[in-house]
Amino acid sequence: MLSRLGALLQEAVGAREPTIDLLEAFVEHWKGITHYYLESTDENTPAKKTDIPWRLKQMLDILVYEEKQQAAPDAAGPCLEYLLQHKILETLCTLGKAEYPPGMRQQVLQFFSKVLAQVQHPLLHYLNVHRPVQKLLRLGGTVPGSLTEKEEVQFTSVLCAKIQQDPALLTYILEGKKIIGRKKASREPTTSPEEAAGHKDKDHSHRKASVGPPTCEGEPCGAKALNPQLPAETDGGSGESNLITTLIGLCKSKKSRVALKAQENLLLLVSMASQVAATCLVQSSPCCLALAEHLCQQYQSLPTFLDPADIATLEGISWRLPSAPSDAASFPGKEALAAFLGWFDYCDHLIMEAHTVVADALAKAVAEKLFVEILQPQLLQVSEQSLLTSTALLTAMLRQLRSPALLREAVAFLLGTDGQPETPGDKSRPLCALLIGHCDHLSDEISIATLRLFEELLQKPHEQIVHSLVLCHLEGRLYVTRGAPEPESYEDTLDLEEDPYFPDGFDSGFQPSSKPPPVPTTSSDGRTAVTEIVNSFLCLVPEEAKTSAFLEETGYDTYVHDAYGLFQECSSRVAPWGWPPGPTPLDPHEPERPFFEGRFLQMLFERMSRILDQPYSLNLQVTSVLSRLALFPHPHIHEYLLDPYINLAPGCRSLFSVLVRVIGDLMQRIQRVPQFPGKLLLVRKQLMGQLPGEQNTQAAPGITSQQDCSCWLCSWARRSRPEPLSLPFPSHAASRRQAQVAKR
Length: 744
Description:
The protein is mainly alpha-helical. The chain contains 33 helices and no strands. The protein is elongated, with a radius of gyration of 38 Å.
């Protein structure tokens, strides 16, 4: 009994010095791993069926336990010193690269990840840690579909978490090769010379305690000597592959969880607030260029047969879930299109969350690589199919664009950086002029697609858009006559009897609206009241050309209510721009100068003047763009587009004056169409999607369906695709269009 008690007491006294036992156990497990390579002859046994995973786990547990027993939290224990001094991580990296035994790389990645995550002592500052980390990064992320993708993304996750805690570590991970060349001591910390000096004092004692395999100063710990079959260690080439390229490679993984985790890790890096880390990402890594190039690869992999209508309907693509919300509307090429839009959304999200330095650099890279080098040549092509597809894709990208930096680059690409007013022969913004010209293309489909592009552009929160297209031409209010008194009534403003579009002798029974023309009511700042403007536009259309009286509807009140909601939304979006509450006062002594509304408004007015000779879908798109413009709460836009009582300068036109002439042309045409109100009602119901059997025939006796009518209005509504229109009394615009189509 006494002897046993004495033995227990002796063991308890020995337990007070656990450091020696831990070091011996750590060295013993490392010797067990190295002996496997010295003694094993079976090259086909997987690593997980050997004792290597178990020994690596024991080494990890010893390191964690040793750290918990240290009195000083920042001090390195003997086992950690042995790990660093004998370059165990370097050796493991070489063994993982050799993939001997099979699956060794997976075990090495797991060991690295757990050591960096569980050991609290800062390790990545040591050369013997970040150098093998660099080499291990160069082994992964380059081959899509690798068997170690899961372990690679876990390894990069740990590195990104450590870098987020200490952004200075990014320099060691990205520029490790440069640091290697400047270091002579194998375990010298690159940021603390004092700590390095303290470690040198311990080198001799730890070398004596080492009973592991022989080491080589500056080289991996005898990996080649352990087994002659292992390949010689190389430096990894030019060192271009690093943490960024590995993450981008993992982002391309077919495994959605791996790709998503890699994207989140990359987002973690670019969103660091450190100026030094952001500059390092831009200048010392291929981050921005690689992201932009992958976006271009995704774009170029899109099939050429994509339907622009399918592109327009695909919405709700997110980088976290790059697929359509529902597979019900599937179409050929949908998967590739969703992948491209998902990656574009990811780049946009990166730019939005990244540091300003990274955001600007990435936005410029995307603009140069995708917009300028790829999209611009396609927009300049004469091929209608290519032009349609590229315009629709650009519209889809604008629809998803949220980041201010990328929006700024997109606006500069589309509209240029010169905000000066245009002249009729100006060529300072060639791409913008070309796109505006596409809105008046011979192909109605191209015109509609380009008008949708501008409509999407007008909804973006960027002041330069509306300024370049409209406001720069309305500055100074050159469209208003200088020194003219304000009109006293509506009749003083428009001399319709002298207009060539309103000839004398209308005896067909069609009269303007029975409502008397309203007298303009102006507010204290000289602006016409909204109700008077609405009534003025309503009075343009004669009662016989309206169908609301035959249907049980609420009239135009619903449209006004919807427009008011859109106006409030637009007003809140442009509130930070500081627009003036009222128009700029006119200088009566300033000489009149020629007014040019700009290419954009000129195109819209030309399209509106031909509204009777164009497809219904095109007319809807033109009016939709004009409606977007009218929503902007700028006094000059409201005055020029909406106020019918302004005194236009000689040679100027406004939206109201254009519509006056359209109504005059309409009245000339409809007087020759028998039973026009009934046929108009049929066309309305047809456009609303009602079946011919449901038509109301009481309004037009003898007409049972739209097919019984051959008038120009019904022919217009029956068309399923844009075609040249044959009118019994074509206008000059229609004749010109027919000649252009025939020539084409």
